[in-house]
């Protein structure tokens, strides 16, 4: 296998883990802070409940989300496969950096809007305004 391709794949995996960490650092308080702060449940119970429900959500809804991100934001026909690969990896990295910086600066942001915005930017650069599927973007952002 081509070493450049392997580098991109492993790099994309590392960036994916970085994005997951960024999302966790940004969103974890949203799901647990109120219940733990009100002493309705303990921190340990909140982590357990959140972990179980995140896994259930990923199993039952994750496929729809990944299909939308993968095929629903950017019309990939006519874009070279190498450009697509690098564009998606760059979008993931851009969104992860944005989420990390926003979390560090304590700015409330949507991680979903961050990745959708990064993909829109890639689509605009790769193929212009006609490449972005605006109707799907509108339904996701709304």
TrEMBL record:
The chain crosses the membrane at residues 6-24, 45-63, 83-101, 113-134. GO terms for biological process: phosphate ion transmembrane transport. The keyword Transcription regulation does not apply. One of its GO terms (molecular function) is phosphate transmembrane transporter activity. Keywords: Membrane, Transmembrane, Transmembrane helix, Transport. It is found in: Membrane. It is a multi-pass membrane protein. InterPro entries: Phos_transporter (IPR001204). The keyword Zinc does not apply. GO terms for cellular component: membrane. This is Inorganic phosphate transporter. It comes from marine sediment metagenome. The lineage of its organism: unclassified sequences, metagenomes, ecological metagenomes.
């Amino acid at each position: 296998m081509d070493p450049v391709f392997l580098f991109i794949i492993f790099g994309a995996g590392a960036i994916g883990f970085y994005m997951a960490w960024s999302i966790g650092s940004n969103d974890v308080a949203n799901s647990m802070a109120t219940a733990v702060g009100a002493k309705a449940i303990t921190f340990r119970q909140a982590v357990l409940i959140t972990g179980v429900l995140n896994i259930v959500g990923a199993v039952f809804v994750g496929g729809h989300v990944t299909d939308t991100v993968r095929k629903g934001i950017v019309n990939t026909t006519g874009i070279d496969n190498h450009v697509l690969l690098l564009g998606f990896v760059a979008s993931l990295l851009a969104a992860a950096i944005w989420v990390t910086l926003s979390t560090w600066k304590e700015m409330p942001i949507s991680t979903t809007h961050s990745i959708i915005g990064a993909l829109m930017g890639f689509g605009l650069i790769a193929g212009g305004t006609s490449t972005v599927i605006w109707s799907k973007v509108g339904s996701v952002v709304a």
